[in-house]
Amino acid sequence: MKVDKLCEQLKQGKVASLYVILGTESYFINEAKNALLNVIPKEDFDVNVGTYDMETTPLTVALDDAMTIPFFGDRRLIFIKQPFFLTGDSKKRNIEHNLDELLGYLKQPQPSTTLVFIAPYEKLDERKKVTKLLKKNAEVIEAGPINENEVRRYLGGIFNKNKIVIENEALDMLLMRTNGNLTKAMNEAIKLTLFAQDTKNIATEDVKALVFRSLEENVFDLTDLVLQKKFSNAVMMYHDFIERKEEPVKLNAILSKQFRLLIQVVTLSNQGYAQGNIASVLKIHPYRIKIALQSIKRYQLKIKDLKKAFNSLVSIEKKLKSTTRSPEEMFQLFMLSFMQ
């Protein structure tokens, strides 16, 4: 069940006794949680809403609360967070949970209580008896990641609601800077919406100024300096990353990823693939493919040079994990090799 359908059912007064919010997308988790909270009058929150973290609280405590009849109301709402016992997680913890007690509750839930399992995981362990019974008896709310087109639809909704126009290039940049993550994109969209209350327009420059750049975005600039063979500028930027305590292994991994992308784009482009098709095949944001194609054309990049650089970065990664040699020195040697 999608969150939209949950909201629709709740408005119609259809409230289930058991729910599982399953997925890693925080935006959907919060939307589902807030929709369920609307079932309980705000003045009754203190007495009829409970939240229990399974990393720190025994399951028995949460179930005892779930079995309690409502105070001054018709329904109790109990949230169970981090139910790791529903997954294949084998990490040892200092807390034990009575799953037999949960099995009993799932077979005969308290009618006046809505028990909600917030499971921020990609999937549950379907082999477990408790998971099978829960999924059989509960309404499962989908909270997983969505594709780019759906993210665009949600963003469009918030801008249209506020009667704000966002330029296509600006929307592309917003998606790229948030890596197509709905939660991040929606948070940034709210910030941009407040900024554009007077102008009712969001341009690319507004996104550049207001949306935080990820490390990957910043390393993209470093990649561009490498491709331009600007030794001093590239070395200076790398030094700045190290000064900001960025992990050399992580920096190298992102650089490798950028060169691998360039190799893939060159290969597909040479085979006659257009920008949109390349984005579809590689499952990469179209704007990033556009930038890659521009770099390939501007710097006349050859696949043999890109492969040589990529292999060099892979070699550096191994050395970074096994030597005390200076990361900055290794980057300088990489630059010199690429420039030749």
TrEMBL record:
Pfam families: DNA_pol3_delta, DNA_pol3_delta_C. Belongs to the DNA polymerase HolA subunit family. Keywords: DNA replication, DNA-directed DNA polymerase, Nucleotidyltransferase, Transferase. It comes from the Bacteria. One of its GO terms (molecular function) is DNA binding. One of its GO terms (biological process) is DNA-templated DNA replication. It catalyses: DNA(n) + a 2'-deoxyribonucleoside 5'-triphosphate = DNA(n+1) + diphosphate. Residues 216-338 form the DNA polymerase III delta subunit-like C-terminal domain. Residues 19-143 form the DNA polymerase III delta N-terminal domain. The keyword Nucleotidyltransferase applies. This is DNA polymerase III subunit delta. It comes from Ligilactobacillus ubinensis. Its EC number is 2.7.7.7. The keyword Membrane does not apply. GO terms for cellular component: DNA polymerase III complex. InterPro entries: DNA_pol3_clamp-load_cplx_C (IPR008921), DNA_pol3_delta-like_C (IPR048466), DNA_pol3_delta_N (IPR010372), DNA_polIII_delta (IPR005790), P-loop_NTPase (IPR027417).
